[in-house]
Amino acid sequence: MAVISFPEQVQARLEILEKIERLQDKASAAVSHVLESKNILPIAIGRDVPADQSRESITTTALAASRLSRTNQLSSLFQPFFLECQKLVTTKQKRGLSSGTFGDNNPMTASFVALAHRRYKREDSAAFNFSVDILLAWLKKPDASKPMHGYPVSLCAEVLTGFADFSDTSTKRRAREALNRIANWAQGEVMEQITHFHSLHMAYFDVGELALTNLLACELETLFWRSPITTNALAIAFKCQAEDGMWYSSKPFWHTSGRATILASCQVMSAVMEILRHRTDLFKQYEQKVYRYVAWLEDSSSEVVRGNSSMFGWAAEASPASDRIDIWITLENVKLLGDLKTLIHRLNRHELLRRSGLVVNWKPIRWTKLVPPDLSMPSDLQLKTQLTRFFITPWKGHRSLDRCSIVLYGPPGTSKTTVAGALADAMGRERKPWPLITIGPGDFIAGGEPMAEINATNIFRVLMELKNVVILFDEIDQLLLERTPNAGGGALQFMTTSMLTKFQSLKNKKQNIFVLTTNRFEDLDIAVKRAGRFDGHIAVMPPDYKARIEILSSLIGKYDEKHGTSFARSLNKKDLQRISISTALFTYPELESVTLNVLETINGNASAATVREKLISTAKTYPKATGFGVLGHT
Q1: At what angle do helices 126-140 and 169-198 cross, to 10 degrees?
Q2: How many angstroms separate the CA atoms of 541 and 632, rounded?
Q3: Which of 174, 472, 487, 633 is the most core-located residue (most Cβ within 10 A)?
């Protein structure tokens, strides 16, 4: 039995995650604080911020509404913004979406307004439709002062790819046409930028344009994520990264309102991160360069004191200052940090599942193939119904694990392990089940009983970092025995207290489902059985009368399919009912064994009566392994 360990690379990434979460939380809190005091956010806050940048900005507020995680509090805080947008496009003056930085009715402001309305489910508003019209008009005929560039075009594409939200057929058609133009344009831009770089025409090369258009072309499927072009573009982007982790640009992509608009490093990094999300095979190669940017964020943050509050964020590279926060740049960095955190969690999950020594089943039994053992029970009390109510419905409905633990108990052979696997399948989506991790007694006593506590610590350390898996603790009764002087169990019985604490910590995370299976429920410590320690206890008994009929029918059908026989067609419902009565209290493995043994010994053309009587007589003399003798549903 391999010893479960914690990979060193995962530990190093956890330290980075701590930094990311700290930076993200502080910056998000600062933006929320500004929102509470101002209905419409300014461009920047801090000492000596020019008047034209401390004024209210529809663009900045729209960016915040489209990028910050949606909460009930933010919904109320953004209400004045949505009312202002509606007012701007519906009043008699109909000034439209004004911006002192990018000009009135520009595609960047319109994109953020549309994305904000979509996030808060306001796609039917006049402001949303007005914004979409601006984007479609600009993409068809770009303004000379606002040519097509990777950043504003990528924002437009983000809006238009949700064209199912558009109310009229004409808009949907125009959106599809615009996306086709964007896709072809982006592919051409990528090739042009790579050519400029390799031919040393650096006056025409723009690393931000390369990263953003490569991302666009891949998203719109004119380039493949795994194509050599994308690999080359990513290599060029990191070659252009400065030692401090930044991408410094002096090439304006727009000239509006008397000022030049230059791409910020956070916008380049966001595009690079999204490509790496699809190219995790390259992440290790560039991992340390990604962390350079995180280090820069940590070292270059700004702090602004307003009243009794201290706010945290970042200033634009064009106007660096330790006492200035640019809301736009701060919001982009908050989103970037969130994307990076998600990617690192995903990579750590991959490492832990494959390199920690865990036993992982990637393709457990399909949920639809699981025959409930209690079909004779009322439907709301059946095993599958209870599991659906406990875990599947809350997760499918609102992505939460209100309950995350269960004890399945019953005699040997009642398919408790199979039930855990079927649950893992049901929790996934589109034939992508959650992985099923199985942990047995051997994992705890690898190296001998004295190693049990150390192994348990390592096992739970790994499990605490995982997400969206089903964890099966299979028959670990010895570690959870009743804590009495006469309990027996040797040194392992002293593990109970420690194990209960570890289970509670795992439960508090609510990131996975863990299933404890046991044949000896009555011997477990009272704390395990106490309400609240686990979210439920379900008895898994041998298949009842109706379940046995279903199982027998399935087993005979599978045999026919494999061997070209026709036993299933010859046996009618009454035959199966008589066989079911004769196999009362048989477990699934026992039913399978009896069925296969009989079918293998009789002629494929045997009559239904012959098959039926042979199955019944064999069942009567079958040496049942469980010896289970309790009253049940027969």
Answers
A1: 50
A2: 8
A3: 472
Determine the Cα–Cα distance for residues 150 and 194; give it in Å rounded to an integer.
14
Query: Which has the closest alpha carbon to 60: 77, 43, 45?
Result: 43
CA–CA dist 116, 95 (Å, integer)? 20
- Residue tagged 């390369």 (tokens): 210
**pLDDT, tens digit, 9 for 90 and up, residues 301-356:** 888 887 677 788 999 887 777 788 999 999 999 999 999 999 999 999 999 998 88
List pLDDT tens digits, range 500-542.
999 999 999 999 999 999 998 998 989 899 888 999 999 999 9
Residue 158 pLDDT class (50, 70, 90 cuts): very high
In single-letter form, the type of residue at position 72 comes to N
**What's the start-to-end Cα distance of the chain, in Å?**
40
Specify burial of residue 135 (Cβ count, 10 A radius: 0-12, 13-18, 19+).
buried
Yes or no: say if 615 and 595 are a contact pair by the CB < 8 Å rule.
Answer: yes
Alpha-carbon span 610 to 172, nearest angstrom: 66
Q: What is the DSSP string of 122-186?
A: -TTSHHHHHHHHHHHHHHHS-BTTB---HHHHHHHHHHHTTGGG-SSHHHHHHHHHHHHHHHHHH
What tokens were used for 483? 């804590």
Largest CA distance in the chain: 97
Handedness of CA 608, 614, 616, 617 (dihedral sign): positive
Residues 6+ apart with CB under 8 A from 435: 353, 360, 361, 362, 424, 469, 470
